[in-house]
Amino acid sequence: MPNRAPIHKPSYWKPRPPRVDDREKTAHQRGYDSRWQRARLAFLRAHPLCVHCERDGRVAPATVVDHIVPHRGDRARFWDQANWQPLCTYHHNAKTARGE
After folding, report:
1. What is the pLDDT along the chain (100 residues), one digit of tens a residue?
2. Which of 14, 43, 91, 96 is most buried when burial is the number of CB atoms within 10 A of its CB?
3. Residue 72 C-alpha from the chain's centroid
4. What is the 3-state secondary structure (H, E, C) of 31-65?
5. So where are the chain's domains?
């Protein structure tokens, strides 16, 4: 049986160190626990429409509570409702993809 050809890497190649950031933590570890779920549902009941769709003259139900300014682990900013906005899934995914 033939052996696989060796993989040659340049001498300067080094493996990247593993990333350690919030994306490797579970949602629960980032603060999205049962307390958040209750607060999220209450916020969506009070603000049922996507703010971006409303601005564009459309009516779409909000399904996501988004942090306007990412909290980056700051618990005060995480729970600051003035930093929350209701978004539909489309607008939330678009915002997340842009890295805002």
Report:
1. 567 777 777 777 777 776 666 567 788 888 889 999 999 999 999 999 999 999 999 999 999 999 999 988 889 999 999 999 999 999 999 998 887 6
2. 91
3. 11
4. CCCHHHHHHHHHHHHHCCECHHHHHCCCCCECCEE
5. 49-100
